[in-house]
């Protein structure tokens, strides 16, 4: 499998990080699925080895804008590229209302069928061309979900690989059953613990140590952290926090294969279910 990082920032973009978006596909095939579609996600797609033409389905974890504001623009671009094959969007009902309103109010002319599926009605046997998909309820300020993707055609003698990609969630333990047998979990680590404890209001987000402890207890082979607050810079400085602080905190509590997601990273999950980083964009300070 190939797992692509389209955006890693929480709430708002930074100069180097876009808001939430991820891509997943079987290796060496063209069809792929997207998980979350924050503003400008289509720009990130243009820099990846996939196309909107072959996008099969979009799964939205929850209604907050940093996870769904990119949908209208992406749909419009797909239409202008003469897409004809149906496109499925699985999302909370409010997101589907938003999509419908954008299509109507902007007089968007889609040359393809848009299949809208309320996530709460997703069938237990829902599949895409290459994945069986299931949904898992999380804890956030609004209804939020994780999606697990299990390959439909495993190689002879190999177990079907499974990955779990979670939306915003302040109770990682809710994924205890979902991650059983998973090769990796993608989960938010919006803050470090000290910052999470300083915030007066309850943002209902997870912090690095919290997720790492859950991953360790669940014996997860690999953990990918993402959805970082804009207060964390890409590179460490003497005065400001950075993603190194997220990684340092998580590594104390988790001894598996830990990854701190960066925009436009590409990961490969091999036949044995081992995750590795295979492409990373060069970054400048």
TrEMBL record:
Active-site residues from the entry: 66
Keyword tRNA processing: yes
Cofactor needs: Zn(2+)
Annotated catalysed reactions: Endonucleolytic cleavage of RNA, removing extra 3' nucleotides from tRNA precursor, generating 3' termini of tRNAs. A 3'-hydroxy group is left at the tRNA terminus and a 5'-phosphoryl group is left at the trailer molecule
Residues annotated to bind Zn(2+) 1: 62, 64, 140, 168
Any one Pfam family match given in the protein's UniProt record, by short name: Anti-Pycsar_Apyc1
Any one GO molecular function term: zinc ion binding
Binding site for Zn(2+) 2: 66-67, 168, 227
Function summary: Zinc phosphodiesterase, which displays some tRNA 3'-processing endonuclease activity. Probably involved in tRNA maturation, by removing a 3'-trailer from precursor tRNA.
Family classification: Belongs to the RNase Z family.
Protein name as it appears in the record: Ribonuclease Z
Lineage of the organism: Bacteria, Pseudomonadati, Pseudomonadota, Gammaproteobacteria, Oceanospirillales
Gene: rnz
